[in-house]
Amino acid sequence: MAQFKTKHGYEGLLIVIEGTDGSGKSTQLQLLKKSIQAQSYGVIISEWKTSRLIANVIDDAKERNLLNATTYSLLYAADFADRLENTIIPALKSGFIVLLDRYYYTALARDVVRGQDIDWVKNLYDYAPEPDLIFYLDMPVDVLLKRIIGTTGLNYYESGRDVGFSSDFYKSFEIYQNKCLEQYEKMKSTYNFISIDGTKSIDEIHSIMNFEVQKILDSGVLY
To answer: What would the pLDDT profile of 186-215 be if each residue is shown by its tens digit?
Structure first.
């Protein structure tokens, strides 16, 4: 097994792919997983809002339109905490490479756009381990809109309708996503995002990510 010099002190690597819905995170995570597994490393993927304890609660609250800005923040923070304690940290302690579809940077962007104080949000996640790599898929809103309409369709919360930006789904999506992108832009230098043009081909994006991951894998020291 390889021993890495990690930023968080655990044996495994923590690698994050950030970006808005429709930016291609899931595709890139699967490609990275395959390329890392091909080198005989243990790999797991953990996605945003997939806690067995909390995810259904969030979905139910959304369906019944029960979430205000604070409950929205706290429920997602609870989902994150459950996954961190029961999935992410145990895997890191066991030396696995953990690939994450979103990290708390998503909460920073979304919660601040919904009016929360950024320091309050940061405090909700101040216990989170620092990732070893953070990839950010940078996508223009017009491309995101086309992708989402062509796949999942416009979601009430992903369009920011709960914030009241506009009664028009398309306009609300544009305003909300642009505000989220502004928050991501502020985070790029603060958290050392590796920003990638999300309009590049799938193979081009994978090549960039794989190169950065491989640099860390190659630095591993066998024990």
So the answer is: 999 999 999 999 999 999 999 999 999 999
